[in-house]
User: Fold these one by one.
Assistant:
Number 1:
Amino acid sequence: MTGLVGAVAQVVVVAVGSPLLVGLMRKIRARLEGRVGAGVLQTWRDLRKLCRKEAISPHGTGWVFRMAPLVLAGTALVVASVVPLVTTQSPMDGVADLFAVAALLALGSVALALGGLDTGTAFGGMGASREVTLLALVEPTILLSVFALSVRVGSTNLGEIVTAAVHDPMAVISPVSLLAAVALGVVTIAETGRIPVDNPSTHLELTMIHEAMVLEYAGPDLALIEWASGMRLFVLLGLLAGLFAPWGIATAGAGPVAVVLALVVLVFKVAVLGAGLAAGEVFMAKLRLFRIPELLAGSFMLALLAVAASYFLA
């Protein structure tokens, strides 16, 4: 029962809190740039405004274009229910595997890329090609960085990895964890389209990646994409915090009070990581498109070193 309550709590907090996280990050960036900025609730207001508009599909698009936002949001909700954010016990613990979670994240990205291709526009095809190129570099790094942590546990189940870290906190302070944390942090920025890989607040055709794929979406479809993108950001930041700062997560045998406490701790961790990411974006410039693979290749090498170190230091 505790696992079921925890899984439901995870989905609710990700679904409700992701627009608030995006609003918080925008507010912090505005304040650091010397602007007042919109309130934290502005993202929810924007989503509500988009949902009231008419859904429009460009001429010539098919079911792929219409299904892409649903697949993107659906995979984000499934990942939110299986990743150990609040509790390591879940009714879906059997599918909370590293490879399954990575596949679900990739499925959402591929669906959005296919939706951009289905429009037949130059921007859609450009954004889709760039997204798939980054995806080919990001997904192996995610697999390797988390796999490095799974070596000492003997399982690729995310719940078991986090549980082992909770019971042995000193294991987090190791060269393996440091290398894996840096690698996973870099690919989290790339996966969520943040600076220096992408700029979510620009529509310059020479730089945009994610925005190029969603230019033809409007109304509820665009709201669903924006909401799903926020959920993916929340989940990845929560996973990063759970793997390398697992304190506060409810484990097996924990009661309802522990789940509530874990929920509060999760919100605090994600807010801190989001605030740090937003503050860092103010002092960084976006990389040139042809320099991004070099950054991701460097993160891949760090993840590979983490795997090698996990065997040598085991």
Number 2:
Amino acid sequence: MAIYNYRAKDRRGEFVTGKIESSTTVLAEKQIEDLKLIPISIEEASSFYLKDFFPAFYDVTKKDVVVFSRQLAVLYQSGVSISKSLELLIEFTRNRKFKEVLLKIKFDVENGMTLSKSLAKHPKIFSEIYVDMVELGESSGLLYDTLVKLALLTEKEITVKTKVKRAAFYPKIAVSLIVTALVIFLGFIMPRFTSFYNKFNVKLPIETKILVYLSNFLVNEWLPLFIAAAILAAGAAIYLNSSYGRPLWDKCKLKLPIFGTIFYKSAMSRFVRIFGLLYKSGLPVNKVFELVKNETGNKFILNKIDDIQTDVSKGKSITESFKNSGIFSGIIIQMLSIGEETGQIDEMLARVADYFDEELDHRISMLHASIEPIFLTVIFGTVLFIILAIYLPAFDVINFAKKG
């Protein structure tokens, strides 16, 4: 449990401040609403924000957009005008860059521009999906529901991305530490042992010869090696960002051992959740495809969505088009088919997305449980190999010294 400082407005429109104990910000917000208050800002009491001191190094994050969406929804539902709501949000926004953006949005709204059009002027912060959904909410009179759905969608997206990053974090750190340790050892420590053994002219075992060779190669050829690595990295970056290389790499990522399943389930969860939400909003199917394909984060899947869009435009059913693409699992096809028959595609896809989220949690838990022993074995094996390579010749040195 944590202590949160909050500022809110009561039903008379007066500001109220206080503290509340809760496990998460979302639960704290609900507790404040239960007090018949309109939450304006909620911050953990012990929080320390570097961005308050170095604002130039911090961009507007998706979390900022989530908070903005929730707070604007609550204020709007309470009868506060959009202009006044923006004014209140500007006052309590910690992120200075976001505050500048909100000032521009408020200026546009006060000069007769709709909220959606004013948001559209900041595409780096508010995606095309976000803007189109807000526009639909404005035209249908369901802006509150739309903003809440957008906040939930963004929160889910943040959660999935965080899980995937955490899954890849441990392997990246472990590999980086192993490589760094080997470079330091071969470049700075092994040459000293090599010089020492050369003085005694002892016969080196195969393990030591391998380390001596690698050490000499690294010490003598480090510049060409560095240049080659830089050229290789630059070439790989150019290729992977090309129209041919990126889809191929994204396809390979989906087939990687262990991690491929995680990448696939995270991409599918994101795709079906957004597709279901947009489809329910009443947008034309072609527009839905145009919006959702740029949100998958995978160029290979994006190309497949282009094929699906082409099939649908030719009159094929959504289920048949998805099935023909060959990338969607059986559960997606099955639930989509049920959704088409019952007219509840959005609900069926939301269930599929929740299923993939649960599967993602399970896979990541399994990954953490299985990958640690693998890396511990690799680290132990590397250390054992180095110890044997260093100390086996020492016995010959000792025998040589005794004979001498």
Number 3:
Amino acid sequence: MSSEKSVKKRGRKSAKYRGAECLNCRQPLELTDLYCSYCGQLNTTKQLSLKDFFGEFIGSVLTYDSRLRYTIKDLLFKPGRITYNYVKGQRLKYANPFRFFLSVSIIYFLVQSLISTVTGKSQFTVNNSKDTIEIDSLLNPSNVLLAPDTNYEIVNPAITGDTLIINKDTIVNLSKEKTTVFEHISEKDLDKIAWTERTAKRIMLYRSFYTAHEIKSSKQALDSLNHRNNRFNRWLYEKNEAAERVIENPYGFLDYLMGKVPFFLFFFTPFFAFFFWLIYSKKKYTYIEHMVFIFHIFSFIFLALLLLIIPNYFVEEAVFSVVLFALIGPLYFYKALRNFYKQGRLVTILKCIFLNIVFAFSATAAALLFFSISAAIY
């Protein structure tokens, strides 16, 4: 009698609803099979009810919650052990390391941005002071030598106090808010120097001209400077508008860059994994398994930062984050190497130091390239 009641309570799991084949993958089943042995779906022909729908939803949440719980617990308190277990086959116990890293890092920056918006307290400190060039002596028209062959309009600074032409190569803006001096360089002179130096000088020239005259039209500016009106020159000049946005809202630009950190680390990891594969070649781990280890390390960092967001807002100078990176992080990395690669203390310490040095140099170089590209398309 009790068995009949238990069968009735099972609802969709009741034996009377079981079919001879899986409705998902059409795998032949026995009536005694509660689940499909091929795809894992529940063997039932019962129509879906509201109760069944929410029951399956809650069940899927609890199942994911279990994986999430194990992932967070082992990631925080068992350095390297989570990678060891995952590589050895315990895949269903933990969340996917690649997806978990992207999720926790993106959540961290979203929460950080939300808190900054609500509290009005930014995570960045930017010095907004501007240096100005003192050229008071140039305000006296008697000290100004104007070149008769200049292509620019000569304006008497004593009348407008705005634009001053010293000679054909030097233009000075004398407004009440800012003073700008820059040297004009012709296309002919630019063509004589190497491409890298030429581009750098071109960028500085366009920036100075834009600041002095606030001409937004790249075509008009290039005509005034007597420079080639090609796509590259127009693109360089138009980047001045992006520079103005950065100056007006530096916090927004930093948030824009920081939001790309997860993707930078995601694409940087395969390069960094090469050094793990190199110095741990005798361990017979695959290249992907080294990447799993690195993603777990990065996940720990963002998870710890996520947990420290609130405490950091109540303590000056982000003391908890400093402790994390200066003390906890290095110890965690050492323990993770020991637990995953199973080597002696001295060997692990030496490899830990080497990998930290490699990370510092390679990440800096890659970050400069990555963020330069990000700034170029800002």
Number 4:
Amino acid sequence: MVHKHILYGVEGGVATVTLNRPDRLNAWTGTMHHEVKQAMREACADESVRVIVLTGAGRGFCAGADMDHLQQIQGGSREARGDEPFDPNAPEDFRKTYSYFPSVPKPIIAAINGPCAGLGLIIALYADMRFASDAAVFTTAFSRRGLVAEHGISWLLPRLVGIANAADLMFSARRVSALEAKELGLVNRVFPQATFAQEVAAYADMLAREVSPRSMREMKRELWNAQFQTLAQAITAADADMPASFESEDFKEGIAHYIEKRAPSFTGR
């Protein structure tokens, strides 16, 4: 499939989705939105794909909504016209315009290689993990545009950095370095720009080769669903999932490769 605003490739069990408008710091457009969503569908349909990496071309991750397209994508309901939910059976929370990443049944790593602002930051927050280059810079941006806490950032950000830090980042829209982002809990890891791509690739490769795709799929679902559950509900849900895991091929392989002291060969089943 030919894309206008992204690149898509698969290698060694890792699908890489690259926002590809480097001359505009990969500013987000309606076309990019639909192409990213289609790429996520392709990655999910491809049984060889175990992990998805989302990154940006050139020196930026995503500078936010393209100012030339701001009216088009400002309102989620307007952009969502004709935009089917990624998974119509997913909880309602994961069927909004940008909130579908949790319903993608494979881990998504946001590889933040440079500036990450506004809507670009929200996209990164919906990923399961965030790795940053030490050249990355973050800003919520919205208060400096006269806007609000868009697209669920008021729910996402406090869960990562706490309410007070979220208020600071949203009210001020100040620029945050990668190292401060790590201290706040906004990103998982920070790598030097010179080795950033290799470090992200090594981690993604480890997930693709060494752990059960079935485990990751089930854990991701449990992890995101638990954000709307009590502890008792989360325990009950996990208990209900346990019998099928004991019957799975990946459980049998998990025991076998450990006993036989060899590399695993998981199937995801």
